[in-house]
Structures are given as C-alpha cells and as structure tokens.
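Please decode residue identities from the backbone states below.
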C-alpha cells in the first residue's frame, strides 16, 4: 500500500548555522511556522511569518524564487510544513532541525 498515492520527496534538514549562513547570503528564505505569540517572543531576523495553522490556505503565497527553509520551536511543525507544501505540489523540501531553540543555543541573532 505504500506509494499507492504517490511519494513525497525526502525532507531535508539543515542545522541552524547552515540555515543562518544560507539566509545571510540571500540563498534561502526562512519561514517561521510558529503561531503569532511565539513569533512575537522572538524570531529569526528577515524571516517570513506563516503560521502552520493557516499554511494550507496561504502556502501558495510563499515566494518560490529561492529555496525555502521552514522553522518552528523545535523542528516538528516545520517538518509538517514541508509535508503540507509537498501535498500542494510546491517545491519546498527543507526545514531547520531543532527550530529556534537550537538557533538560540548556537548564539544566532533573534529579533523581537
């Protein structure tokens, strides 16, 4: 039964330092899928905010001119975001492992 309805591409995982460097170089767009109160408590500078709760309705508005890297608090919701986008036929296949928690542990910048 596996594969009966098609197969999603594997989800790629970047570390926070990898995601930071790629975003800093303008090679990826970081997309935060946490909810509004989480975003307000701190987010990656320059990231786009697209809460997971509304992603299925708003995913097509996410730019596709460069690769997207989703992130959340710890990595679970960002992997779900990739799966949602793949089901919608969008090319997004990457998330940041460990989420913003790991980002902060690496001492990377956070905006409030």
């Amino acid at each position: 039964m596996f594969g009966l309805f098609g197969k999603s591409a594997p989800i790629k995982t970047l570390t926070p330092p990898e995601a930071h460097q790629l975003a800093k170089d303008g090679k990826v767009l970081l997309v935060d899928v946490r909810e509004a109160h989480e975003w307000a408590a701190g987010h990656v500078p320059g990231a786009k905010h697209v809460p997971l709760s509304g992603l299925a309705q708003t995913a097509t508005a996410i730019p596709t001119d460069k690769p997207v890297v989703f992130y959340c608090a710890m990595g679970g919701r960002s992997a779900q975001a990739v799966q949602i986008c793949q089901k919608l036929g969008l090319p997004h296949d990457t998330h940041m492992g460990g989420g913003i928690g790991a980002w902060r542990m690496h001492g990377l910048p956070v905006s409030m």
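Observation: Helices lie at 16-24, 36-40, 55-58, 76-87, 99-105.
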